[in-house]
Specification:
Blueprint lengths: L2 H6 L3 E3 L5 E3 L45 H4 L24 H17 L8 H8 L8 H12 L6 H104 L1
Length: 259
C-alpha cells in the first residue's frame, strides 16, 4: 500500500482498481512513513527558479573527479541497451540504465539525507499517483497537498526539498561531465595525439617517397639517354668496321682476279 493510501485508508475505501469512495467525517492526522525530526525546524524556501540544463565547462586541469557510471562497475553500457536516434541523428531518449540511475539517486537521497526526513517533495509527487483518477490537475495537486499537510508538509518545505533534489541532480551531472572529461583525455585524446603524430610521420614519408620517385624518374631518364647514346656509338662503330672490312675484301678479290 502506497504512502497516500496509508493516510487515506481510515476515510477512503479503495477497490481492486485503486478507485476511492470518500466517506464523510473529519480527517485526523495520520503518522508519516518517515519520522519528522522535531529538533530541526523547516527553513523557508528561496524562490524556486526554473531548472536549466547543466552544461559546465570542464577544465583539463581538474583531477580525481569520480562518478559511479564512469569509474564504477557500471561504466560500460550493457550490450542489449541500444539508444534510439531521431532522423536528424540526435539521441531521441536516454538509455534505461541512465533513467534508473537518477530514480535510484533520488530514492537514496530521500532515504539517507537528513534534509529529506519526514514528508517532502518526493512523497508529494509519489502520492499524486494514488489519485490520478482526478482529472483536474489543480484539484489533484491540492488534494495531495492537503492530505500530506497532516504529516507536517508545508509549501515552504515542498519547494525547498524540490529545489534540493534539483541541486543533487545538478551536482551529479557536473561530476559525470568532469569524470567523462578525464575519461576522454585518457582514452580518446591520447589516441588522437598518437594518430596526429602518425599522420605527420606519414606525411613526411609521403613527401620523401615523392622526392625519391622524382629522383628515380630523373635517373631513369638519364640512363635511357645514356643507353641510347652508347648503343648509337656502338652500332655506328660496328657498322663502320664492317663496311671497312667489306671494302678491303672487295679489293682483295679484284687483285686476285686481275693478277
Amino acid at each position: 500500500m502506497s504512502f497516500l493510501k496509508q493516510l487515506l485508508t481510515p476515510f477512503v475505501e479503495f477497490d481492486d482498481e485503486g478507485k476511492k469512495t470518500p466517506e464523510k467525517g473529519n480527517q485526523p492526522a495520520a503518522p508519516a512513513s518517515k519520522p519528522v525530526p522535531s529538533a530541526t525546524p523547516v527553513q523557508a524556501a528561496t524562490p524556486l527558479q526554473p531548472a536549466t540544463p547543466v552544461a559546465p565547462v570542464i577544465s583539463p586541469a581538474v583531477e580525481n573527479v569520480q562518478h559511479p557510471l564512469i569509474n564504477g562497475s557500471s561504466s560500460v553500457i550493457a550490450a542489449n541497451q541500444t539508444p534510439t536516434f531521431s532522423p536528424a541523428g540526435t539521441i531521441a531518449g536516454p538509455l534505461p540504465e541512465h533513467q534508473q540511475y537518477f530514480e535510484k539517486l533520488i530514492d537514496e537521497a530521500n532515504a539517507k539525507n537528513p534534509l529529506f526526513q519526514g514528508t517532502d517533495f518526493k512523497e508529494f509527487v509519489d502520492s499524486k499517483i494514488d489519485i490520478d483518477d482526478i482529472t483536474d490537475e489543480q484539484i489533484r495537486y491540492k488534494t495531495a497537498f492537503n492530505v500530506l499537510k497532516s504529516t507536517g508538509l508545508t509549501k515552504e518545505k515542498l519547494l525547498s526539498t524540490g529545489q534540493e533534489y534539483l541541486n543533487i541532480i545538478g551536482r551529479d551531472l557536473n561530476a559525470f561531465q568532469g569524470a567523462q572529461s578525464m575519461q576522454y583525455q585518457k582514452e580518446v585524446r591520447q589516441k588522437e595525439l598518437v594518430i596526429q603524430k602518425k599522420a605527420e610521420e606519414l606525411q613526411a614519408l609521403t613527401q620523401k617517397i615523392n622526392a625519391l620517385k622524382t629522383e628515380i624518374n630523373q635517373i631513369t631518364n638519364d640512363i635511357n639517354i645514356t643507353k641510347d647514346k652508347l648503343n648509337t656509338t656502338k652500332n655506328s662503330f660496328l657498322l663502320a668496321g664492317e663496311n671497312k672490312q667489306k671494302e678491303i675484301e672487295t679489293e682483295l678479290q679484284k687483285i686476285a682476279q686481275y693478277f
